[in-house]
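Table S2 (continued). Query chain:
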Amino acid sequence: MKNILLIGPAIIILLFTSGCLGNTEEVLQTGTWRLVQLDPSVNVVEFNFNPNGTVIFKDLNAGIIDTGTYTATAEIDHRYLDIKGLPDVQGQYPLNYNHKWTIVRCDPGALIIAVSIDGLGVVQRDFTSI
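Corresponding output:
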């Protein structure tokens, strides 16, 4: 009986500490995501997320094409997109996309990610599927 009493709270804790990605990874991998250029000082970029955990990055203004890695995770009530290995984009804020971004919205038509960066506050990037 004691084992059952210990297992019950452990299962509840496990359920509350692991979030739900839902179909986030499937949506990310549906095609090309292009930055919605809300600020003309920010270069237009595109992302292609692959099932093997790589992301193809294109900076359309600077002519940069490179490959990095990504992971999509979930914790309690937030989903995250952790991007690594991409080049710096001079003149951009943030300088690069290598951050653990909070996924604000991810559906077939829109990807909105945000990150808090010291000295800049919260930076949000809006993408549309093309």
